[in-house]
């Protein structure tokens, strides 16, 4: 039915009708399922003609499963965008040729690759040349997967209406391991998931392979994500039983063609829980033997299995510490088991223990810094961007730059655990860039986090970046179409952290929402300011961890008296009648000592601390004068809360003006999301201002509407069924 | 973009392409979302022309929200099926007129309604007549909702390619309350749900109204379902708090236009749990006052609110028994609170208590029979079809026919809790019909269950049928496209229980899968035999409740030693070296005494007990001779298990031959489902035969392949993450 050979009016009517009959409902429209691979028709006649000329005859050499994927994608994309039957031609006739280096005629290979060094199997080249007077484009690389990446790059150029004439694009990923972390439980609950349940239907695997699994892999490959950790870091040991490994294998077989490896989160005590051993002590031979046997078992079925992700001795998870061993001993045991098969260990540095009498933000550094150089070469230590836990804004983790002999993997959170869940429209590109471009000064000026993570600062052999997925079973994948941009931005930056968050936003907008220039500009502006807006109405001036307890939904600055002090809000903001903020300077817990100079001294002094981190590092009096504005701390705090909430109103207004250029169904759905966003930004503002006012005992600056309700109204709000609960 | 005014080749290409770009993936195809409202293009030229002539000009009188729904549905359906722009004409020009009785010209009203008695607001008439030499069709009824029902009937005629010439169809629902029961928790987990999570996104309500809510209502209205209980009978008391009631209201406002009322399951102890009272004793004035106030609060926001569904004093739920009161006292208190607003109480008779020294199948009757006549007029007692719990086959509950003064509402299960979950292809139409057509003999021969339920046997004022929903967030709604037929069949039978399950299967197949006659026949045959097949490989000859514990997934005839004896399997099959079966005859627990004569005597004697209920009512020796086959009981049991499993293989084979006539994506997905079904039918067979053989100690009949594994292999299989767990 989708064969496009028909002509004439009758056939036209048939197709027209089958289009309608495919509509999902009366109000048929864009439901967001297609993500940025929407491939909408190019309505501009000349543009279409120009692309058509170059792309109407193409050829994919080879017949690997990846080649088939490329062929399928080109057929689909060109048919959709260009409106004609895409032709898979003979190689000689094709104006677009996709072939790996080995498949190329020698002369073409020599010409095309002249001066380029293909360092990795993923590097790709898009090369324009002339043959017999015909302009042609070649996409090549060492492997078929590299040509798949190149293919998506070319498609992106067309989707963003860029020229494809005389291209000479050579691209090499700056980071080698680019993975999503799914915090998905085996019962399909997603911890910190706000887009429905897990897309993995474990119960029906391995037999039932949804088309969605393929579409997931397509989306990831299109942005260069080359791996996925299928299950929650709070891991169920059952994942390593044969019953589940055959399900994992089925997914791995889908993802392989798209260049994606499968990884698993494992529970450190698995030898005891499912192996029948009496210990999981990493120094015991039977424990190592168990992991070796388990690895062998896995690789026999999944030869390209990626490796393990481990959360150990953190928030109740078992680990080597249970047996008096270090994180390095634990990680190395697993690394030894995986090494013969080429697997890696991603060992999380997110550790903090109640017993330790040390401030939480300092513990990961204290624990891991002494272990520098003690890890086997196939271990990556995975570090969250900040020292606490995925707050709207955090300073960088002091571990970045602190371990010259240990490769550190970045862990970003894409899902919005502390960022309002999926109804807050926050584009995280600027946050990721802020972190990556921060200077650690580890080897003097210019020692950015990005250079630590990509391995260039300390010449590491492997490098990695993980994003905690915001993907779920919701039809639009992320619970909110705008938040697809965060999945997209994560992947693009993991491949190339030098891209600007703005250009990524622009690409994504054109590919996903609209081609109208004016509308694209509006949307990009809206996206670019959205994260700062969120910081303002949630946690301005360095405030952090003041969300409601457990689920982290909504404001909860009043939270106290939990099982651990460092799970409460009052511990972090320390508001009292004198002032507010956490003294992490030398006069306090001296967390600044964990940073390199001159960052250390700069953060030690409130007058040189960037205002956005003021209350992270200092407890300051309510009348402290804010340099940039001249306002008192109290007035500035209130100002930012009100500023943030009114910026969300402005965002919603901007969105409402986009109606002419956005698909009607998508527009209507997103408008409802903006309604929630506006309400909740005001809720955050009012709850926090009311609460902090109870300490500051100062009036609101003139002209501001006071909170709608008394403080206890906000304190009494309860959300026992908020989604994404932790275990 | 969906406006169909375009002509010419260029426009054709545009639409053709936008069709493709709407495809959900490379393998675009039917993902099952559209259910039976698929409205595929009528490819047969003459058929299309004939329908077009009659339907191309239509008019919907009035402008209520229901009228708008009708207009939208006609536009969408006719555009899709007929391939031309549907025209909403002036009344005079229209060959199809949709108008309620009050909107009709008097002469037409008189002619059309001559001899018809519109008993309910839902009765509709489809009436063919001639005017000025033009053949016309009128759809009318007392209300707009009635005309909506009539509209769906007309559309069904077109979808099933029936004549719409000279129609004179008058239809009145046989049952007044036709509702789905969603066992959906407020955290979106669906108890006994096998199609993803709840479609109600409570967290984002009331602001976010998905198009899916509308499509849900469309589907229900199209089969005559006029209400829905939104939440689990194991009810969370929070549903009655203002926070949730505003969400309920938002859904009610969507459903209202489609003729659907919203109902809620309520927890009997709500006055204590959320009302701050110290008791929920139904005889206390403050308790009644609380419920009255709560009802007032609800009706102020939802004027057409349907009422409450209550599971009380059953499986740990609170109830009037906690205060020494009867079910009637509990139900009547709620009924009194709802009565001023027109609401009803649906009070479940599914009660059994550990303390009671009475066999489980007998308890509901013992509890409720003495209460007959004690309920207020707006109470319906909701009775499961059988006396245990939604087994693949059960005899009817003896309550049907036992309460001449109390209307009994039928509770069917659509979701397949005990029927293999959503990967077993079981069409339940024949099961529903088997129950409804069973004779209770309550007032002599012909006193069928259907007549009890529709109120005609005892002249009840209200009547009801509930179906426990199989709907979830899966794209195809029911986790398996074929199982949409059960939602469909439930609705059709609730409206008219005299329809045959075969004609329902045929309608559904044509509307959902294919128009090819040969293919339709194959599918209908496959559907019609599927339930008997399932009984054979799961619970032949009256066996029951031998599923694995808790989740009820897979075989577990060996289950014993649970918290309650009547939760185990061994309690129900009582296999030993002598024989097998539960003696419910007068020599045993004498459950047969609860039925009317002559059923009672027939069931008391194995020689007159229908073979399908043999082991339900009798414990028989392994060598007992089965009348129909002459086989020994052991051989017959084994024969049926093998028969069932081989029938599933045959079903899968039949399905595989349908490829030419089924959408490719849908075909591929369903083929995978059949693979699971085949495997699991063999698993059931092998596990049960192995287990029962350990008692019977007899060989398999000649020629049968022995089970693939020893018994302990099956006994050791564990499924802690099986979906749909109970609370």
Automatic annotation (TrEMBL), chains A, B:
Domain of life of the native organism:
Bacteria
Q: Which Pfam families match?
A: Glyco_hydro_67C, Glyco_hydro_67M, Glyco_hydro_67N
Reaction catalysed by this chain?
A: Hydrolysis of (1->2)-alpha-D-(4-O-methyl)glucuronosyl links in the main chain of hardwood xylans
What does the UniProt keyword field contain?
Carbohydrate metabolism, Glycosidase, Hydrolase, Polysaccharide degradation, Signal, Xylan degradation
Indicate the enzyme's highest-level EC class.
hydrolase
Domain (Glycosyl hydrolase family 67 C-terminal) spans 478-703
EC numbers, comma separated: 3.2.1.131
| Record domain Alpha glucuronidase N-terminal: where | 35-154
What InterPro entries does UniProt report for this protein, alphabetically? Answer: A-glucoronidase_C_sf (IPR037054), GH (IPR017853), Glyco_hydro_67_aGlcAse (IPR011395), Glyco_hydro_67_aGlcAse_N (IPR005154), Glyco_hydro_67_C (IPR011099), Glyco_hydro_67_cat (IPR011100), Hex-like_dom2 (IPR029018)
Provide the Glycosyl hydrolase family 67 catalytic domain boundaries. Answer: 158-477
The signal peptide stretch is 1-23
Q: Which family does it belong to?
A: Belongs to the glycosyl hydrolase 67 family.
| Complex formation | Homodimer.
Q: What is this protein identified as? A: Xylan alpha-1,2-glucuronidase
| Species for this entry | Paraglaciecola algarum
